[in-house]
Design a protein that fits this description.
The complex is a heterodimer of chains A (192) and B (184). Chain A is an alpha+beta fold and 192 residues long. Chain A is built from four helices and eleven strands; from the N terminus they run H-E-E-H-E-E-E-E-H-E-E-E-E-H-E. With 184 residues, chain B is an alpha/beta fold. In chain B, strand 1, helix 3 and strand 2 (75-79) form a beta-alpha-beta unit. The longest helix of chain B is centred in the C-terminal third of the chain and has 16 residues, at 142-157. The termini of chain B are far apart. The chains are: A alpha+beta (192), B alpha/beta (184).
Chain lengths: 192, 184
Amino acid sequence: MSAIESAQKLKAQFGEILSEATEFRGELTVKLNDAEKITEVCVFAKKELGFDYLVDISSVDNYGEDPRWTVVYELSRLAGNVHLRLKTDVSEEKSELPTVTGVWRTADWHEREIYDMMGVRFRGHPDLRRILMWEGYPYFPLRKDFPLAGKPSEMPDVAFSKPAPLEGGPFVTVAGGKDSMAREPRVRNPEN
Amino acid sequence: MQTNSEIGYNSKIEGDVVITQVDAALNWFRRNSLWPMPMGLACCAIELMASGASRFDISRFGSEVMRFSPRQSDVMIVAGTVTYKMALSVKRIYDQMAEPKRVIAMGACASTGGMYRSYAVLQGVDNIIPVDVYVAGCPPRPEALLDALVKLQDKVSRQPVIKELEISNMLRSKKDRGEKVGTT
């Protein structure tokens, strides 16, 4: 069963809450309109469609848009090397969606990383702690409104943090410049 | 000059005499067996391992005994990126080392934070512990680390041990008498 057939079967099972599969550079993406249904969709994808391997879960911060978060699931079937991407949106007010740790146990650390970096919570996760930063760190550093240099924080006997000196930066590269002068990294602050 | 006296020094039995200062002798003992505490945190640790292996052979300089206990080590080689999550552990291990203790900051990350101008990385290990020698490079070659070790040995051999001992004894007795000991 190819990825497109899998996507069609998924659509046939869940109907309205799934979008049609879109293809980009040979990769198929299916969008789920209701994040609350993510567990059922993943159970079906694993049990009926044979997606036995969850490659990764990642998150996107669509800063300034609503809904703000996009959570991306990379599904894979090792037999036949089939890959399918599943996306779902989560609003900033809610910032929560059901866990898929009951489907693929590897989702445990992926979901913890998203919670740590982006602050999106996974309901029903067995152990939703920070995974990279220390317990008690007050910010979510991969959010778009978090400064590149970091913010000061203090946790006695655990850790502290200070803003890093950027020496006039942040230096940002813009893709698609005409020549190397236009493409090279220059000081670009997010506010201007 | 040789002497035949029974109670004098008999160089035939006891060997030749070298006259030196106590400071110089003590420093000679210390400088040639600086046992490292390998604080390997990132890719610099690979170069640190290469320094210990046969091609570069850190034992030529008396530092082949990598001690994973801070109680037994003389120099902490901070090799790699110090994150804020690791920072207080590094400081704690430094505090557990016995005097005299020294620190080599190996590579750009340990010295200044390197390319990680980031929320997660301590911008130089000298923010939390005193550093004796900085090594440039990303990562530095083993020769650079060995050069830093030789520089550190020079620094050790210039140390006025007896004078420092006198000062620390004086400060301790002052403290025991209940007098205030200031650093100014």
